[in-house]
Specification:
Blueprint lengths: L2 H17 L1 H8 L12 H13 L9 H4 L2 H4 L5 H13 L1 H23 L22
Helix pairs in contact: 2-3, 2-7
């Protein structure tokens, strides 16, 4: 993975925190969390997104995040990640709905934080704008 990607990881992790995406995903995916689980499903999904954003292209590349605990915190093992993905795939419609709800809430938080700088801040019926797609 490129070194520039790791530097960008700092910005991405701070964006996740600021928008509350990890928190919203944690709430939305609570039904998939095992009772004594060490890793939160919301954090696992954001770790996967970060891994892709910094240049990873397969599940094993999450090891790059695992190697930087000061930056990314505790990162789930490959088997733990696979078990979560299998559980989410077992009820893909419910999982997709939960994830979409979390993304909408984080997008709303991003717009609120941006205030008058948000792309949709001056939107009217004639001059409308979509909110930023923070999860893209």
């Amino acid at each position: 993975m490129p070194a520039v990607g790791q530097a960008g990881g700092i910005l991405l992790t701070q964006t996740l925190r600021a928008t509350g995406l990890t928190t919203e995903l944690s709430r939305a995916l609570a039904p998939w969390r095992k009772q004594f689980a060490r890793h939160d499903p919301g954090k696992i999904l954001t770790d996967l997104a970060l891994m892709l954003a910094v240049g990873g292209d397969c599940l094993a590349d999450v090891a790059t995040l695992r190697a930087e605990p000061e930056l990314y915190g505790s990162v789930a093992s490959d088997p733990t990640i696979s078990r979560l993905l299998t559980a989410l795939a077992a009820d893909v419609d419910k999982a997709e709905s939960a994830i979409s709800t979390a993304r909408r809430k984080a997008r709303k938080n991003a717009c609120a934080l941006a205030g008058h700088h948000a792309p949709n801040a001056n939107a009217t019926a004639k001059n409308w704008a979509y909110p930023p797609d923070v999860d893209a």
